[in-house]
Fold riboflavin kinase.
Amino acid sequence: MKSSPIKIRAKVVEGAGRGRRLGIPTINLDPQAAGILEEGIWVCQALFPQAFWGVLHFGPRPVFNEEEKTLEVYLFDFDKNLQVPLHLDLEVFDYIREVADFESPKKLIERIEEDIRVAKQKIKSYQIR
């Protein structure tokens, strides 16, 4: 496993619901919790009540003309029936890429799907806990 992950505890906040409408539902978090995290897309693990791997976005959302930084996580194999806690504990591992602009939401979805493939490959290389 690579060096120790960056640990983040963030308050869950309400989002616009865009991820759900795009078919990639995210949990939105208070971006102030990002601390020293560099803007971009990351491999992460959320720790509630079990561990869920996922991808984390920190930064603006240029495809939607939003300059304000956001912090949101898409969790793989997440059971949508689970209650999301008021605060989420994350371990942030590998950097995948910078925040980018896309010509359309469709192109964004294609890139997120690629980010997910990259993240899953990286996860395979980690020591299983």
About this structure: The chain has a mean pLDDT of 90. The longest helix spans residues 105-124. Residues 6-124 form a domain with the Elongation Factor Tu (Ef-tu); domain 3 fold (CATH 2.40.30.30). The chain has two helices and six strands.
